[in-house]
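[recover] target loaded
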């Protein structure tokens, strides 16, 4: 393996999102330089597909975070319905998010923006699933990103009376 490829292979193992974005940029640069001779390679679409991998990882993070925040909101604002199933779902979402962040540490930089956006959606979902008024769930998330991802954190029940 060449010296140049070894760092890319390591990057692939260390951060899939950064690797995909780097590879897509390199493919586009090769296309601009017309390096696809003698074999005709559809560089732009290959680059697009690789970039799609990075977008997919970001969507996966948002999806897992959405389900986690929905369940944490339900846990906090509907304590009488807490179940082992909810506990298991919360734990599994936390583990899935931890795996995504371990595979692509650069996703951690997107967490604050994704967290705020996804909480707004999770708030509505929690209201839909519980039948509680949307106003039951605060507009701003009542716990931090760190707390939401902490396997030992369980939101306290809130008395709505």
């Amino acid at each position: 393996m060449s010296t140049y490829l070894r760092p890319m292979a390591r990057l692939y193992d260390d951060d899939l999102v950064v690797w995909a974005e780097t590879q897509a940029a390199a493919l586009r640069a090769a296309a601009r330089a017309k390096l696809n001779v003698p074999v005709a390679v559809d560089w732009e679409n290959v680059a697009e597909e690789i970039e799609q991998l990075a977008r997919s990882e970001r969507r996966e993070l948002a999806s897992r975070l959405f389900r986690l925040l929905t369940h944490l909101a339900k846990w906090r604002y509907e304590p009488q319905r807490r179940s082992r199933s909810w506990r298991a779902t919360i734990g599994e979402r936390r583990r899935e998010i931890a795996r995504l962040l371990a595979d692509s540490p650069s996703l951690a930089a997107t967490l604050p923006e994704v967290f705020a956006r996804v909480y707004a959606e999770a708030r509505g979902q929690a209201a839909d699933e519980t039948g509680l008024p949307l106003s039951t769930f605060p507009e701003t998330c009542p716990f931090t990103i760190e707390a939401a991802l902490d396997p030992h954190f369980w939101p306290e029940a809130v008395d709505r009376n």
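[recover] notes: The helical segments are 5-14, 16-32, 43-77, 84-103, 111-130, 145-149.
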